[in-house]
Amino acid sequence: MDRDAILLTPGPLTTTLRTKLAMLKDWGSWDADFNAVTARVRERLLDVVHGRETHVVVPLQGSGTFSVEAAVATLVPRDGHVLVPDNGAYCKRAAKLTQMMGRRATVLPVAEDAPISAAAVEARLSADASITHVVLIHCETGTGVENPLAEVAAVCERLGKGLIVDAMSSFAALPIDARKVRFDALVAASGKCLEGVPGMGFVFIRQAVLDACAGNSQSLAMDLHDQHVYMGRTGQWRFTPPTHVVAALDAAIEQFVEEGGQPARLARYTDNCRALVEGMGKLGFKPFLKPEVQAPIIVTFHAPAHPAYDFRRFYAAAKARGFILYPGKLTQVETFRVGCIGAIGRNEMRQAVEAVADVMREMGIDSGAPAL
Ligand SMILES: *Cc1c(COP(=O)(O)O)cnc(C)c1O
Q1: Which of 232, 258, 284 is the last residue of a domain?
Q2: Which residues does residue 338 pair with via DSSP β-bridges, in sequence order?
Q3: How far is the CA of 1 from the centre of ligand 1 (A)?
Q4: Among protein residues, the one whose CA lies closest to atom 12 of ligand 1
Q5: Does residue 369 sit within a domain?
Q6: Are residues 100 and 164 in the same domain?
Q7: pLDDT tens digit string along 272-329?
Q8: CB-based contacts of 8: which residues, under 8 Å, 6+ apart?
């Protein structure tokens, strides 16, 4: 089929034609026209979290993880101590990169099918005064569970701890209001719910902690403080910017605003998620999470118990029908994941469910029901 498949993944995502067309131009990184695009993108990003009064936003080249790593290296002093509540794969990644940045990290293990408890975070912080920062994954994309950002932020504020939020898969879809929720840094990227293309991340940094970040980073390329100072002085990125990615993000944000911003995006993704879960439910599939803790970002389904099921064949057959699924990321149970995000709506979700039904017929699977 000479048509792009629909990406039902947590990024890269299906983008609009308008976003793709924004990349058909070469920009000089030194040129005032490109600097104006960067400045506009930064202002509009701040608007998404209502952060113009309290935060700056610093873009960084690379995938989302580069920005998480940069946020830890820039925000946490070298003798700092980070608490990472862990209910999934992205939490584990954050703890690992914190350690590799040479910072002390303490992991607080939590069940994979439940949100992190703010009370448990509070107890841990109260028990260990050496902890300086908490790293919280807002939506744990490994399962799709939403963690309680506002509650954890309130605990950190009350106990005087720094908070770094990985909001990669939630930013622009779930509500985040910097006027109400205090965070020192919040990280997201171009290729997730803003529906740009992958290639850059960005970190909101609270102005009140910005000066203290100077000199923390042991990496030149990942130093967000230096990137911010240089950008403030010159309007330019420190090193070669991902020009086409920035231009595509600018176009994607324009469409985000036209659609109605975060509330409209959340409504569309919620509708996508509902259509997906209902449709798959009729085929017998069961989500891993309870509905009340499921974020409308990505749904983890149990693998069918039927002996003919095999994820690779299932994936290939869905791909042949134009839909790209995502493998599971749990170690204990066999699962697969289906994303609800990207420039897609209820129609695409319905077609995806029909494709899955067709795949099951081809594979001789009569029900998606998992083993009990
Ligand atoms: C996508 C994602 C990231 C970044 O992953 P990259 O592959 O580096 O872009 C980090 N955290 C979460 C929660 C994510 O969903």
Answers
A1: 258
A2: 299
A3: 30
A4: 168
A5: no
A6: yes
A7: 999 999 999 999 999 999 999 999 999 999 999 999 999 999 999 999 999 999 999 8
A8: 323, 324, 325, 326, 338, 339, 340, 342, 352
